Amino acid sequence: MDEADADMWKGTPLFPDSASTMAGRVDALYFFLIVVSAFFSVLIAGLIVFYAVKYRRRSPDSVGASFHGGMALELTWTVIPFFITIVIFVWGASVFFAMSRPPDETLNIYVVGKQWMWKFQHLDGQREINELHVPVGRPVKLIMTSEDVIHDVFVPAFRVKADVLPGRYTNIWFQPTKPGRYHLFCAEYCGTRHSGMVGEVVVMDPSEYQTWLSGGAPEGSLASAGARLFQDLACNTCHRPDAQGRGPVLEGLFGKTATLQSGETITVDEAYVRESILNPSARVTAGFQPIMPTFQGLVTEEQLLELVEYVKSLQSLPPVQTR
Amino acid sequence: MPDVTHHPALAHQFDSLAQQSEATTLGMWVFLVTEVLFFGGLFATYAIYRGWYPDAFAAASHELDVTLGAINTAVLITSSLTMALAVHAAQLGQRKALMVFLAVTMILGAAFLGIKSVEYYHKFVEHHIPGPSFQFEIRISPNDGGNPPGKLADVELLKAHVQIFFSLYFVMTGLHAVHMVIGIGIMLVMLWLAWRGTITDEYYSPIEISGLYWHFVDIVWIFLFPLLYLIGRHAH
Amino acid sequence: MSTGTVFMPPRHYLNDGYGIRSWLLTRDHKRIALLYLAAVTLFFFVGGAFAVLIRLELATPAGDFVSDETYNKLFTMHGVMMVFFFLIPSIPATLGNFLVPIMIGAKDLALPKLNLASWYIYILGGLFTLYALIAGGVDTGWTFYTPFSTVSSTTNVIPTALGIFITGFSSILTGLNFIVTIHRMRAPGMTWFRMPLFLWSMYATSLIMVLGTPVLAITILLVAVERLFHFGFFDPRLGGDPVLFQHLFWFYSHPAVYIMVLPSMGVVSELVAAFCRKQVFGYGFVAFASVAIAVLGFLVWGHHMFVAGQSVYSALIFSALSFLVAIPSAVKVFNWTATMYRGSVSWQTPMLYAIGFIGLFTIGGLTGLFLASVGLDVHVTDTYFIIAHFHYIMVGGTLMGYLGGLHYWWPKISGRLYNEFLAKLSAGIIFLGFNLTFFPQFILGYLGMPRRYHAYPPEFQVLNVLSSAGASILGVGYLIPMLYLMWSLRYGKLAGSNPWGAVGLEWTTTSPPPTENFAESPVVTWDAYDYQTTVTVES
Q1: Rounded to an integer, what distance in angstroms lies between the CA atom of residue B229 and that of residue A240?
Q2: How far, in Å, CA of A83 to CA of A81, rounded?
Q3: Which H helix or E strand runs over B121?
Q4: How confident is the model at residue C537 (pLDDT cuts 50, 70, 90)?
Q5: Where in chain A is the domain with CATH 2.60.40.420?
Q6: Chain mean position to CA C472
Q7: Which of B144, B145, B154 is closest, CB to CB, to A294?
Q8: For residue C22, what are the contacts with CB-CB under 8 A and spacing of at least 6?
């Protein structure tokens, strides 16, 4: 798609590229709102100009007609906008639901923002800076955190955006529909070189993507790096697969529901695993003592991601890579 | 308005002393609403963090001196009483009594600040002032299994949350103390007005609205005391 | 309705003492209004100068005119100056201060000393901020998001924060004074529903000032304390939550938008009535719409944080509430338009501003629907779309209303008339320049150009050049009124007490009014905007 490349850097577009499954839905709502806005703007402006001309003051002493209002009119222009806003609200809410609910099967990529660059980590171990390669046609989920201040991942062509916060995970998902190179911006002001914290999302045909993937993974997959770290930090002395350790068995745990000491149940997700590493005593699994130390300050954000990915990779069955 | 009824204390923009007094009283009430929201931001912050870190807050609260806090509470409640008596004396036009009650109120206010600064001094000596030099000894119940390197780090995390408590403690009580200092300043002005004879049984609204302010500052403390000093009591 | 013989009253508030003390120690609300007018005009031009530099930088895609550090300081100081030192005090502290007592038939505000104190507090806050500027500026954005502002930024955050903290008290005191005055100082017969709509909007504005500002004050104070003493409140490394800061900040700063626009709506109600010589259509609805906007404005702060990691459900609630604010705003626009129907419509300058306001506010309000709609907000928030939207509200709305009001009441304030031709010309220039500056930014925003960018991809250049060209036209449009208004002070024709043939208590007293506002305390027996009953116009 040389044409797409050329278009992106030349000429003046008036409308952004639409390159994800979400783009069409957002654009439809946008056009609907433009129609509504144009209708009311023209209506108001037309009436004002019409009245200003038709009822212009013809003698210095003339005064306006004597009437003060009308209940029917007031109700009309209260109720009609009310129903229009309900339509917009429901429409906008449904788009937002779709944005915040990723499909079950996603290609997960970890993102770490720091002043002023983006670091991407693929599950197979590839690391990229300010450039993100993804295949066309597959839903991709970005799991994001920041090393310092608040950043924000924004890919206009996909119509998605989310803040990237220090100390917690946020995520967005998108499904690219068109190969090409698209802008990636930091959309939350983050300091001096904020406008330099930009990159590109490279959407590739699946076959090209496979080629790119196999091009280089010097450090092995993310999960295997996590496995090494799991050994190095001696996590495996307590978290043993045979249920004999002092900590819970992690195999097959991810995505399941766990019961806490307090009696409440939670879903084991990235955020919970992360919290359990950094602040283990906050939410302890039922049947275990709060004896695990915190690793706050001992592991970097990137190492945390490796550990989380390792925990995710631990299936109940022996972890055999099928691919 | 005919000039015969013109009271020396009546400002030019008002028609009568009654209107003037209603206006200034309403003004003070509106100001107190502002104050409620001013402290409200802090109370909201407190509520959120206490919800997140109940254990750290209980442990930190345990370090505060309940005896001194309770004495201070009693001092402030008494000062509210003397303030109310001062307003009453002003309404009756009893100038001497008014001056005495105002002076007692001021002394009680100053006593509160004195005790508060003793508490602050203790916190300073114990390195409980948040920041780089902050120190805090966690007394954890001995039921946990040993895990030396981790235990240290775990304590660090709790310490961070304890620091949030102390940060809130110093900002909330500090702002309250600033309000007390301003209150004592206002009492000083009132004392001067009373001594000059400006305050009469016809014109006592300055005393009234100063009283409103004083009571408000006391009420803030009535909330601060249990929220800061007493939450650790039932935990141990 | 004749304006009678035109003369300059022998005794009025402007010749009641000439020395510097008679101004700096005055308790006359009209003189304090002029002190504020001078100060906000100064800050407006300082803030405007920053805007000029910003638009110059953005004329080319590369960051070549100023460094990125400087650029960040420019947009921060532009925002701080314009929001806290111009837009918030603009109408309330100048026109409001001048008119609230006169419109209700009082001699002054209830608390004149407090009124003067509020001006000094404002100036003190302004000096702190100017100091921060001279000492090297500040680069956090006017929103002061943590942890950047408390941990990362190396600029003068604390002096700026103190400046805003201090200035906050001046708007609290102004709001307090208006509430007390409107409650307690109305002339005999001036019931709540006989009040001009400007007073209703001042009252609603005052409520927000009194209820919202203290929360901002404490939040800014916590930022300063965290930065200065390393007390942990918002820093995640100390267990704090940076998003909590955003909640506290927007709890004030969203209602603050209504502090800025409600007064302007009040002005427009006056202008439309006066220049159509007709009662505002649906007076009660317009009055209650002001109060409704003030109340609802406190419930929608979360719509600034749709992408900041709040839960899906709280986002939906904030989205729904935000749409509710649209209703009273729409009601006002429809009522103003209906007021023109069968009116006697004059095309004098203030009416041009009123019409400009209605048009631009309509666009600003409608694009607000794009942002309240949460699925669409995700794409356009933090882009130039939002910049365009709030400039349509704050510049297209507030500033148009402010200039319209200034032109309408200028003869009352100064006793003299300005050059009508120049005034119409500059109103036209401002309208065109404004649209050329900000309309392209809607398109830029949807294209995805993020806000606060020092350099941008080259395909955005054409639209940015249009915007910069518009800004220079707009700048000229703002300078012309400065000149002819100053000129009119000395050489303008005498205005007489009622040059527009308008009703309202302010037009029953001389221009300029005497220090005590009325020769004789008025007694009100008519409704607002009663153009049918002949009202005796006293000179």
Answers
A1: 44
A2: 5
A3: helix B95-125
A4: very low
A5: 1-8+16-48+102-220
A6: 22
A7: B154
A8: C16
DSSP single-letter state for residue A112: E
Please give the Cα distance from C253 to C297 (Å, whole number).
10
Q: For residue C246, give both structure tokens.
A: 């955003």
Residues of chain A with CATH 1.10.760.10: 222-313
Which structure tokens are listed for C220?
């800014």
Please report residues of B whose CB lies closer than 8 A to that of C225. Answer: 167, 171
Q: How far apart are CA C313 and CA B119, in angstroms?
A: 44
Q: Is residue C521 part of a domain?
A: no
pLDDT tens readout for residues A177-219: 999 999 999 999 999 999 999 999 999 999 999 888 877 655 6
Strands A140-146 and A107-114: parallel
Annotated domain spans of chain B: 16-235
> Is C503 among the domain residues?
yes
Fold (CATH) for B16-235 = Four Helix Bundle (Hemerythrin (Met), subunit A) (1.20.120)
Question: How confident is the model at residue B145, as a pLDDT?
Answer: 39
Contacts of A104 (CB under 8 A, 6+ apart): none
Contact A180, A19 (CB under 8 A): yes
Nearest to C65 by CA among C487, C507, C455, C391: C455
What's the confidence (pLDDT) of residue C8? Answer: 87
Place of tokens 């995700």: C378
Q: Which two tokens stand for residue A269?
A: 């997700």
Instruction: Report helix, strand or coil for C197.
Output: helix
In a domain? residue C9: no
Task: Closest CB to C172: pick one of B12, B22, B34.
Answer: B34
Size of interface A-C (CB pairs under 8 A): 288
Residues of C numbered 333-392 whose beta carbons fall under 8 angstroms of chain A's beta carbons: which are they?
Answer: 333-335, 337-338, 340-347, 355, 358-359, 362-363, 366-367, 369-370, 372-379, 381-383
**What average pLDDT does the structure give for chain C?**
93
**Residues C215, B131: C-beta atoms closer than 8 Å:** no
CB of C63 within 8 Å of any CB in chain A?
yes
CB contact under 8 A, A156 and C447: yes
Nearest to A298 among B144, B147, B153 (CB): B153
Q: Out of B138-152, B181-195, C197-211, which region has the weakest mean confidence (pLDDT)?
A: B138-152
Here the CATH number for the domain that contains residue C36 is 1.20.210.10
In a domain, C4, yes or no: no
Could C179 and B26 be called an inter-chain contact, meaning their C-beta atoms sit closer than 8 Å? yes
For residue C502, the model assigns a pLDDT of 92
Rounded to whole angstroms, the Cα distance separating C150 from C233 reads 10
At position C435, the amino acid (one-letter code) is N
Predicted confidence band at C85 (pLDDT cuts at 50, 70, 90)?
very high
Interface touch A298/B157, C-beta < 8 Å: no
Tell me what pLDDT residue C203 has. 96
Host domain of residue C139: 20-507
Confidence of residue B210 (pLDDT cuts 50, 70, 90): very high
Burial class of C507 by CB neighbour count within 10 A (0 to 12, 13 to 18, 19+): buried
Annotation: CATH topology of A1-8+16-48+102-220: Immunoglobulin-like (2.60.40)
Q: Please report residues of C whose CB lies closer than 8 A to that of B42.
A: 218
What fold is seen in the domain A222-313?
Answer: Cytochrome Bc1 Complex; Chain D, domain 2 (1.10.760)
Chain C nearest CA to A187, separation (Å): 6
How many domains in chain C?
1
Find the CB nearest C229 among B38, B131, B157: B131
- Span A284-306, mean pLDDT? 80
Q: Do C277 and A149 count as a contact with CB atoms less than 8 A apart?
A: no
* Contact (Cβ atoms closer than 8 angstroms) between residue A133 and residue A121: no
Question: How high is the pLDDT of residue C76?
Answer: 96
Average pLDDT over residues C416-420: 95
